[in-house]
Write a structure and sequence with these properties.
By secondary structure, the protein is mainly alpha-helical. Helix 1 packs antiparallel against helix 3. The longest helix is centred in the C-terminal third of the chain and has 28 residues. It is extended, with a radius of gyration of 16 Å.
Length: 80
């Protein structure tokens, strides 16, 4: 695993979270040999759904906060 000290973060946090949400969605809808979500126990399915919803809510609230409080290039931090 790569150490965080050696990682370069070229994307904003909002972009990373957005991509993670898209990844969750794709994983939950997967078909064929990659359908792990449909094989999960109900408790873990509920946890995955809750995690996705929490990320969506956080990202929306964080972007709203940026819109209200950031003055320099706020568009750079927002997901279109």
């Amino acid at each position: 695993m790569i150490s965080i000290d050696k990682m370069r973060f070229r994307k904003t946090l909002t972009r990373h979270i957005h991509e993670t949400i898209l990844h969750f969605d794709r994983w939950m809808r997967s078909r064929g040999s990659c359908r792990h979500f449909s094989k999960l126990p109900t408790k873990l399915m509920k946890q995955a759904i809750l995690t996705e919803k929490t990320l969506i809510d956080f990202n929306k609230n964080y972007q709203d906060w940026i819109k209200a409080n950031e003055y320099y290039k706020k568009e750079s931090y927002l997901v279109s």
